[in-house]
Design brief:
2 copies of one chain form a homodimer. In chain A, helix 1 crosses helix 2, helix 6 packs parallel to helix 7 and helix 8 runs parallel beside helix 9. In chain A, helix 11 links the parallel strand 8 and strand 9. A 6-stranded parallel β-sheet of chain A has the order 2-1-3-4-5-11, sandwiched between helices. In chain A, strands 7-6-8-9-10-12 form a 6-stranded mixed β-sheet, sandwiched between helices. By secondary structure, the first copy, chain A, is α/β, with parallel strands linked by helices. The radius of gyration of chain A is 26 Å and the shape is elongated. Chains A and B meet through helix 4, helix 5, strand 2, helix 6 and helix 11 of A and helix 4, helix 5, strand 2, helix 6 and helix 11 of B. Chain A binds a DNA duplex through helix 2 and helix 4.
DNA sequence: AGCCGCTCCCAAACCGCTTTGGATGGCGTC
DNA sequence: GACGCCATCCAAAGCGGTTTGGGAGCGGCT
């Protein structure tokens, strides 16, 4: 027969003081034992650890961080309002990667939905409140006021992407967007394509600009600049890919090569091509960028759907998180940029120009 | 000319005590003034509010919640390990919806990546630490141990979805998966389809089971049960849709109607159909479920891509968050379920059976 | 014996806020 | 003039940890 429950679920959660009392020790000693200080005897430490485990003691992070001054939390700021960046699949994968790193380091991740308009105040309050030890910024605009603001506030932060026009140096992690799209364009050029369109991401974002620059540079080098109507900007949805491609194909001299900024756009483009009675890979070639989203794979490693440049955004999240933790730990004296290359995979979606 | 900055950025953040000192008031009075108690004169309150605004004072949420006992934070638990649920686009949209509600109510949202295997301990520690006031659970399995655990721990929670086999009542928000898929199937049946396949989500999840049940019921009523090979389960990717459909079409008597559990699967299915030289909407009809993801719209409202059942998951997030806040505020004495219907839209992807 | 240095432990202050239980002074009332 | 009652304000005690600055006890050395 089981003995009667000697310890039913504690009505009051175990606190450090209670734990100390039950061990006939002072809170000081228990705290130091748990935190691995070396001025507590091995025997005592064992007793403390054992009792802590048995009672399911978990230190109150709030009290702890009030005492230490460190929040042990990283903030990811989500622009609120109509354009919820969080629903962007890229955002989700990035956050997942970063979250892994935080969890391993004992940090927690708080998502702050920043009300649109009150951004300046919002960031100020966030810094002043001490809610987080650092911030990750995403989707920066070429000149992003947040960078100046945060530098001024002295709150550690790392930017995913770059703000080309920033006046002061800062920490960032980015993919080499320009080079990736330069290379993708050169691939099409090498296949003989001369009319090449770009279905880019939203206008005004830094990465969009860099990708466009890469394409432009390749086309310029090959002396075949694209007409303005061959460059489109929009939120990266399948529908956008479909509509834009349909429109492009209706052009008098339609493009034979299409570059897209995301897999979803590429899927829309493919649908448009096929709906027009053409074949992808022969009539029209498609090269896309692949963010390596786990729920949206580009086929399989052996059999990709699209020819693609690829830089897993989960990796970016991990890199950014690691950098931020290092910055917080004051391991960096000087802003450290990190530019990650994209890989290039040839798939069935590209072929010689017709 | 601008006057010289009278107040440079404070090296020390403004605290309640400092603010009180600068006003020659006690911290008590300042606190009560800021929190709207009525035992402070209107004049004083105005002075306090003014000074707070001017100094950019933001109360330290950690200290506050240590004092009040309320964390003012809601936890969303992300199963860690290999299967990062957070990268699931459905998860992201749900969280975005919930986040709106939290932000409006002054709550923050913390994402806890729960290490796989140590779930029991993890939830216990989360509850004991007082890090959050409540939890949202997603993607429950038919008998989910977490529900029993959390009920026992006394931590308020709301489940997105249901756990059919749960022994005790609990709060949940769910879409009527069974009815939605019943209706979708009836649509195909009414069009004369008799060989109907289901590309479902992962096996073992509650919503997958409910959807399968809906389809099965419709088919049974129509006296044309599907062969076992017509029901597939997997993570909901485009590739899965493609592969599964390709396999189905190679069947001796292939299905003429395909139901899919997500838009991505449907897109894969469409690609497979077209690659097989068939037309969607005439040779093969596709009905999908549409989670209303903002970055993956089902065409437009006027021109949907697919015939679809639809229940925006962002709305679910909002509903769940509201319910949780109500539970925390002890507004509910009895567990309140909330079953949301799905809408049904006919698009070009379905037509009479060939 | 006296002193030093170690090891192990602890009392008390503090982090920044809330909340309880008065204290103070002005005013009306009898 | 004494009393009671408001309207305002505040001192101090937490909340649950960490950290500083010792202090007790003990063995070894001179």
């Amino acid at each position: 027969m089981a003995p009667p429950q000697s310890k039913p679920r504690p009505a009051q959660p175990t606190t450090l003081r209670r734990l100390a009392q039950s061990l006939a020790l002072s809170p000081t000693t228990v705290s130091r034992a748990l935190n691995g200080y070396d001025d507590v005897s091995e025997g005592t430490r064992r007793r403390v650890l054992e009792a802590a485990r048995a009672s399911g003691y978990a230190p109150n992070p709030r009290a702890r961080s009030l005492a230490t001054g460190r929040a042990m939390a990283i903030g990811h700021v989500v622009p609120g309002g109509s354009e919820h960046e969080i629903v962007n699949p890229v955002f989700a994968d990035f956050v997942a990667g970063a979250g892994e790193v935080y969890a391993a380091a004992g940090y927690e991740m708080v998502l702050s939905v920043m009300p649109e308009g009150a951004e300046d105040e919002g960031y100020r309050a966030l810094a002043q409140s001490g809610r987080v030890d650092g911030l990750i910024l995403q989707a920066p605009r070429p000149q992003d006021a947040r960078i100046t603001l945060l530098t001024e506030l002295g709150l550690p932060f790392v930017v995913h992407g770059r703000a080309s026009m920033a006046r002061s140096p800062y920490h960032w992690v980015d993919m080499d967007n320009r080079r990736a799209f330069l290379r993708a364009t050169q691939h099409l050029l090498a296949l003989g394509h001369r009319r090449i369109a770009l279905l880019n991401g939203p206008v005004g974002l830094d990465f969009s600009a860099r990708r466009a620059a890469g394409v432009e540079e390749a086309l310029l080098r090959a002396r075949c600049p694209a007409p303005p109507s061959f460059v489109c900007h929009d939120r990266m949805t399948e529908t956008y890919g479909y509509d834009a491609t349909t429109k492009l194909l209706a052009h008098g001299t339609p493009p034979t090569g299409v570059l897209t900024s995301s897999l979803l756009i590429a899927m829309g483009a493919r649908r448009a091509v096929e709906d027009a009675g053409l074949r992808v890979g022969s009539d029209v070639s498609i090269v896309t960028h692949d963010d390596g989203l786990s729920y949206l794979p580009n086929g399989t490693a052996e059999a990709p759907m699209f020819t693609a440049t690829r830089a897993p955004v989960g990796t970016m999240g991990r890199e950014a998180a690691q950098m931020l933790l290092a910055v917080i730990a004051k391991k960096h004296r000087v802003p450290t940029p990190r530019l990650l290359p994209a890989t290039f995979t040839v798939g069935p979606s590209t072929g010689p120009a017709p």
